[in-house]
Amino acid sequence: METALPLGGDVDISTDGDDWLLRAEGSRVNIEHPLWDSLQTTAPDYAHSAAQVQFAMLPDVLGMAGRSLQIDHDATQITARF
Cα-flanking dihedrals φ and ψ of residue 10, to 5°? Predict the structure, then answer.
């Protein structure tokens, strides 16, 4: 999530029942849509760099855990639930 906060910010990690909730907030959120969209599939049509390996691995890891990812964002925050 820190990649989405180019000017820094705060990250909060919590649980909601069986779900994990990650919330990042800053003065500006920068979403590279093709990169973040690659989180929604286990066969992304995106060439990840070495610095983005977590984006390439997360869909498979969540799938093995029987979880799915939901991402919401606006101009100042991004929320991921799985």
Answer: -120, 145
DSSP summary character for residue 43? S
Number of domains in the chain: 1
- How much of the chain, in percent, has pLDDT values that exceed 90? 68
Residue range(s) defining the domain that contains residue 70: 2-81
CATH of the domain at 34: 3.30.565.10
Tokens of 71: 């991402």
pLDDT in tens, 10-29: 999 999 999 999 999 999 99
Strand locations in the chain, DSSP E? 10-16, 19-25, 70-73, 77-81
